């Protein structure tokens, strides 16, 4: 995972201390041209916006009890990862690139910073993957989902995300140092170009989660389309545990309903009359008031899950647009370092494009999630 290895085109006058030829950090900043100083300010502002937006999501879930759901726990874990990207990774990358790939913070912090970059970016992507799985389970099995997705199971999935991300990042420091054929140059913070690590980390951090997200969203879209079409036609079918399709709901629009042989019992007239068959949802016929209330809750729940699926689709689309270019360049540079023209500039652009994903996620949830807009 070759994050933050880019450089922005341009030149910077080397600031030299009066007593040494080594670059001095404060003098380096003071000698920045106006355009590079403006770029640094913009990147810092972007980092602050990322931290601020994700912090609002975290605070909203902590303060509002109605947001204490399994799905929003996953969203909070995502916001924590994205917030740390903006707080720890982006500022040092902005300095490193604007100062023409000059690193002032030591070799040890260089390796730790690179590891944190891998950790938080991978955790962000894996959290998106878990959210897609959660929405898949919710919309394909909405009735039993609340019982299956308990708080304990949600915490276990979140822990698995962070453990997996840590396993990819911190142990890799040993790998990086062992794979280096020569010592790192002074005032540099280069990332490993070891092909094995690039393939391994890219597969775990992006390509496998991408396959899972595409698969789950396709299934979610198909399930939502089928249920929406069934509701419009007046029937909703549910795949029972035995695999047999049974009629569960019939909606008759208008004020009156004609009696049919297979539905001898009619409910009182209403703007949208509903008739339940004896299919296990309601057991034996009970008073229609209770059935109507239960049915309304199920329909409202389906509408909410469908809205969440649309939000997930937007999140996944932004995720692919932001991260796919980086991981394509990442693998391509490992196989053929000279195949990419202006590699340093391209690497910088696709790296920051990937980090844009961390700033976009809270915007998407704020705009598309009714719960977060309250």
UniProtKB/TrEMBL annotation:
GO terms for cellular component: plasma membrane. InterPro entries: GPCR_Rhodpsn, GPCR_Rhodpsn_7TM. Keywords: Cell membrane, G-protein coupled receptor, Membrane, Receptor, Transducer, Transmembrane, Transmembrane helix. Pfam families: 7tm_1. Its main location: membrane. One of its GO terms (molecular function) is G protein-coupled receptor activity. Gene3D superfamilies: Rhodopsin 7-helix transmembrane proteins. SUPFAM superfamilies: Family A G protein-coupled receptor-like. This is G-protein coupled receptors family 1 profile domain-containing protein. The lineage of its organism: Eukaryota, Metazoa, Ecdysozoa, Arthropoda, Hexapoda.
